Predict the 3D structure of the following.
Amino acid sequence: MATAPLVSCDTEELHNLNIDPQAVGEIDMNYLFTAAELGAASAGSAGDNRYIDWRTNIGFAAYAIQQLATASGGISPGDKYTDNVESYNAPWEFIYGDQLKNLAEVLKQTGPGGFAEGTKKNTREASRILRAFLFHRLTDYYGNIPYSQALQGIEEIYTPEYDHQQTIYTDLLKELDEASAAISASNPDDGFAAADLIYEGDIAKWKKFGYSLMLRLAMRVSNVDPTLAETYVTKAIQGGVFTSNDDNAWVPMALEPSEWTNQNGISRAFAAGDGGQPTTLSKRLVDMLKGADASTAADDDPRLMIISGGVDEDTDPLVQEGMPNGLDQALLDDYLGIEGANQSEHFSRINVLLLDDDDPYMLMNYAEVELLQAEAIERSIGTVPGTAKDHFEAGVAAAIQMYTPFDASLEVDDAVAAAYAQSLGYTDGSGDALEMIGDQLWLSKFFNWWDAWADWRRTGFPILVPTDYPGNVTGGTIPRKLRLPSHEVAVNAENIAAGATLPDNPTTRVWWDGGN
Amino acid sequence: MKQRYQVFILGLLLVFAGGSAFAQRTVSGTVSDTQGTPMPGVNVIVKGTSSGTTTDAMGQYSVELGNGTVLVFSFIGYLTQEVEVGARSTVDVTLTEDIQQLSEVVVTALGVEREVKALNYSVTEVSGEDFVQARENNLANQLSGRVAGVNVSKASSGPAGSSRVVIRGNKSLAGGNPLYVIDGIPMDNSGFGQAGLWGGRDEGDGLTSLNPDDIESITVLKGASAAALYGGRGGYGVINITTKKGSARRGLGIEFNSNYVFETVNDLRELQTKYGAGNYVGGVATAPTTLQQAFDWGSSHWGPRLDGSSVLQFDGVARPYSYAGDNWDRFYETGHAWTNSIALSGGGENQTFRFSVSDLRSSTVLPNTGFDRTNVTMSTHAKFAEKLTLDAKVMYSHEDAHNRPVLSDSPGNAVQSMWVIPNNVDVNVYRGDPNKLGAIPEGTSAELLEIYGQNGDPRFPGQELLPAANNWGQNPYWAAYQFINDDIRDRIITSGALRYEITDWLWASGRIGLDWYTRRDKSLTPEGTGYQLGGALSEGEDRVKEINMEWMLGFDKEFGNISVNAFVGGNRMRRSWERISADGTGFNVQFFPAINNSVTRNYGYGFNESGINSLFGSAEIGYKGILFLTATARQDWFSVLNPEYNSQFYPSVGAAFVFSDAFTSLPSWLSFGKIRASWARVATANLSPYNSNLTYSLNGAPHLGRSMATFSQAGGNNGTIPNPTLTPALSDEVEFGFDLRFLNNRIGLDFTYYSQRTFDDILGVTISRSSGFGATNVNLGEMTNEGVEILLTGTPVQGPLTWDISLNAAKNTNEVVFLADNLEEVVGEEPRTRNVFIKHIVGYPYGMITGRVQQRDPNGNLIYDEDGRPVASANYVPIGNGIADWTGGINNSFTWKGINLSFLIDFKIGGDIFSGTNNRLIQAGLHQKSLQGREGEAPLHITGVVNTGTSESPQYTPVDRDLTPQEARDYWDSVGGEATAISEMFIYDASFTKLRQVVLGYSLPSKILSRTPFQKVTVSFVARNLAIISKNIENVDPESTYSTAPGAQGLEYFAMPPTRSYGFNLNVGF
């Protein structure tokens, strides 16, 4: 056959068929940044906003650290320390596969050689801060994870090697340092303010978020790498951390247009009408909120009736009661002395005002920053001004007063909040100072259970009594790590063997928790 | 088939019969076949002379006898008969089919007819008659057991499901289907979805559109050589469908066919019926004593031994705690399928037509599920001025699939619920509200409604009546009657072909074909469904269009002993797909499911298009009709690949040598002998449009007015990385074979050996999600298939009683040779039990089932934990393979006078199946095995070791004891779990032998018919899937699968029960 007719078959018309009319070759990187912000809160950018909260934040962490309790199993493995593949897989799938992927692309295209190189400087720096937030979350879950080789599928790195958690933390702290310094009001906006769901382009708040996160990360490694902690606690305070609840990092949610994208994933994960998780509060949490004397409301934490919506609609603080963890239906019946008891009728449940589908989703709050400063002072880590007591009380008050974005009616007067904080009787240098700080960190992270779990693993506070349900997989101890996802084990076994946190069991400690 | 040869035979007559004949004596008569049907076009020659004639449309002939005394009756495909005329003036003859003799002419690639003996590759033709009596809605299922080397599997998915056809083994890791071609024009056989890990439905494929009554024959082009002329689309083999044409005849031919079959459940369950709903309390099996317990334990079968005592059930009524009888009998129905077809045909010398209408109404065993189809087909053949012929055809089909069943996981799944009903509960209790089956009835007590609400608001009448505290434990009536999953497809497959004979050795043709359909789907999760109280509705429409335009220029001439048959041509294919959909969740006005009543609404839009441009050519050179050399070539250009890489050349060469005609010294018992050899290369571009370049798309929904975006191809959290440098995957195949026939064609043996190698395969490689993506496409795979195909035919008895037997068998050996650097395996499907994965592993065959096995200590002892549960391996290891080694079938056919009995037995040998059903049944306490270890039953004994040390420094202590009932229950739960599974416990040998088809027919003799307006009346008893003759798995059909997707073979999970169908077929010709 002649060459001429052959060539003529390879037509421009044929090539053009492969141009997708619904897609573009280059796009505004702010769109990816917005998607990552939404994803960091509820994974709505991936089209399933409740999956990760349902499986892991609630199903695993909220039960394991005993803020919620349930008599069922399945995707509530945290209550009785059972295995659930989905709870193990979900953060890996969504954080790497959606949020971090989008951020990596923003950094790639705004970086050297990218089609948006040199533009969108603030979007870029904010992306680095958000990236650090998401990566530390991942490594806290799993220990050593792919980091330096991660997110480079397009560069043909299909089975990335694992980095040690210390390497990851060291680099994340460096990233936060650089990005928090580099994000600047003098950079051109380039659409950042309009794209930014969290602070609507408020650069000062982004800096505070970056340094507050630096404080969190520095304190998290403080037990195992005091030098690193020391350096970055000091840098964080010098850089300027959150100073009020106005600085809190919230991602606003909406009812429309898609329940899978725009709504709050935590609220949806609790939706009874959709088969969600029960909203029963744990005995440990309610007991702590009710104070030392259960027979009076006088010493109650003002958060008691903010977090609790009542027992079977009874909102009398005195009748509030939490459910012990580790019960199944039969044990629950025994516990209550009622055959066929319904856990939702007998125990306090989460206040429905906190569970609207368009309630905002908090990433990080001011209270934590104050409490971490108190701890740093107590443990003489870095240079932190003020007294531990001042920071502690400011943190407690802030935690009490942070619920108004859920509902205006949840406002607590400054005086009430301050009085309660003072009533706890914190004394600098006292023997129970660290425990009080740990308890308050735990209390300040309702809904933010994944991070409360990390705090508990690091501080050991509050003191939790593990459950020992028959057939649990931890030998009756509170889990300290997620198992690696089943698909990761299936495809990346060699790198896991070489560098993951092993053995890959829920009882293995990650590096900052004293592991290898 | 017959009509096609008329022209040919007439031509022969012109050559041989000459002009004049002696006019002495005339003999006349009728020629008919064994069923009494008159045969037109039969060659009648006076032996020893050149005079003769052919029978007319009524099978009648009249011939001048001249000096002859013997008449020779011959017709292609029938045994030639010589008849001594004697003094008779009327000679009626019955010709019997020569089933040994393969059709002398078959349809090969591009619709080109070829003499079988010239072919250098194996080709199998199946007659359409095999499909019309015992029917299948999906034509592909009819190929099961009929064609050596063709492996057919269908999902257990009801009447409108898809089929997976694999020819000569899996050639690509990405899977791939054969190309289906109707009268030379490719048709679209795209599937619309399969069930997966989270459930879903088999949404069917393209083949259900076809009406079996319209099929003349199906030719399977198995190997690369046979399919090389289809280039990139023929890489997985080609299934050539030839439709029926009209025939020249006197008057109008009318054929009416009516088929009515029943379908019943073939119940293979053998479950325990001794224990009822309940749970272990303090180590003791306990029946519920409170409403709450009755509800909470509604799907747990760990209660005490059934004792007839009065025990509460989930609906608040106490009933005897005893076996409630067979719930499948109560729930499943008898299905019915009624097909009525009428075909008209006729025409004259220059123009013929055929027109047919067919109507199928069917329901299946699953209540409220069915499939209806109407086909209208019109075809015409016209000849103008001797040189120009036109063939045109329009096939219209209307398909209506009603409530395709949900498979695999539980949402909307009635079948799964039916598997796990407690022994002591009558499924009729699940009916609830008689006016809204499966719903909570009016008058349900507030206490129950509160309990049903679990931790949320109380439920209310009209919502789903859940039988247990599990929102996904669907009420089967609710799933069957309140869910909607309907789709309607309107389709037109049309083609026109013009052929012009430029000279008697040169021709040109042009052909255009269109396959165009819209598929309207509607899916409702009803308001009040346990796991989605708000409900959801989805409405959508797909539009698919494929146009093929083709030209050819052909040359056919003999030069002395040399014959040359050659052509060149070109093809242009364009395919487009578009989808528009609207989704709503939640409804403003209660129980009114309409998009315009939904609370939140979304719309969706999808579009893609692709094309292939091709040039091709073929040349066959024959020597004395003994030796044939053929070479073909094709070049394709694919739109889905980037221009630098989008083109591929496919050559093939081959030879066929008919040695029985070449050597005269061969023994007389050898009637025919041919050897053949060929080599070919094909290539495939198994890639969706727009997947070769990285692009970005906007997310469907913005957030608070802000647009969001991500990678187009990798949205969500499990995307595929586009690869701009992909090239077509290549596949080389060499094939040898011989075709021998003995004892005057009464015994035939056709043998084929092939060896095939796919390389540069486009792999959708599952990668670590820490890469940001779930998969990528690379051009690296290499896989081999090697096998043999045997077709053995024989006529042990011939005469008034004829017995024909045909055995086909094929063995294929597959190996994954190479994936990618540092890539030892590719991961496929994960079933809902989440304790196995299909993997394609280097050095193993495609599609290994991998899972967890019990750990052993260094001495090989099984390791248990201190509670007696087996300790599972951390890694997944190969434990089976879902693809059979051997496939085949035996077809027997007996003919005696007007009676015909045929039955098809087919088999697959050597595959494995992971039974998710048995896995779950053991966990649920319904499997017979789960009796072990209960109080009062045989104890569950373990022998092995327990690690009493640490995981770092293990110390193994022997254990040899019976488990307590509580431990036994935990044991059974653990072995079927996820991270704790002993997956190998649920692997079975999937080999089977089945009685696939039986047809017993009776044709009224022509003597009776001659006094009626009918030319042919045949009544048959027909049956499909009557019996499973052998299998090695309990409770389920070894053929069960919930998906026909590639890489999902060997997985089974709560399949629809297998069914038998049987009934009657009436065929009447006027």
Summary: The first helix of chain A runs from residue 3 to 8. The CA atoms of residues 5 and 60 of chain A lie 65 Å apart. The beta strands of chain A are 249-251, 308-311, 348-350, 361-364. The radius of gyration of chain A is 24 Å.
